[in-house]
Amino acid sequence: MRSIDFTTQIPQSPAEFLAAMARPEAWDGDASRVEGTPEAGLDIRASAPLDAEDVPAVAARLLPAGAAVQLRVRTSPASAQPVSADIDAQVPGAPVTMAARLEVSGGAGGSEVVAHADVTSTAPLIGPMIEAAVAPSVEKILRQSIEDIAQL
After folding, report:
1. Of 14, 46, 51, 74, which one has the greatest count of Cβ atoms within 10 A?
2. Which InterPro entries does the record match to this protein (predicted)?
């Protein structure tokens, strides 16, 4: 398992960030389903094609044709302090998964997002090499996703 930790700032309050997560345009791809409300907590499922430029060569060889990322995001209610989002991501048929937790705290003037993610590969013998190769891409995508949602 390879862990990723970072902190970033967003211009929204935690409740505004959750409201942005509930918007369909927050989730690229063909299929997305948002259940719940920011006030009560969200359960989001999304699927998007995997962009080849986001996949290191060592991992690309293990991907099935037409690979897509499947996401499930579960959030705390907007009233929680801090607001949290648990994210599970997988590519069916690929030996890599990602589990992340975002904690958003702050107020009307902006918030801090603390992110922790674990990348895990089940590939025998080469799993640690895949995790090491994939982790920078996962961090880049996670950072970009937070930034994109914060701009909605």
Report:
1. 14
2. DUF2505 (IPR019639)
**Tokens representing residue 3 in the block:** 């862990």
| Distances 19 to 106, 149, 152 between C-alpha atoms, Å | 15, 10, 9
Among 121, 144, 129, 151, residue whose Cα is nearest residue 53: 144
d(CA 85, CA 8): 15
Rounded to the nearest 10 degrees, how much is the dihedral formed by the CA atoms of 45, 53, 137, 27? -20
When pLDDT is averaged across residues 117-130 and rounded to a whole number, the result is 91
**82 preceded by cis ω (within 30°)?**
yes
Residue 30 pLDDT class (50, 70, 90 cuts) = low
- CATH superfamily of the domain spanning 2-150: START domain (3.30.530.20)
Whether 57 has a pLDDT exceeding 90, the answer reads no
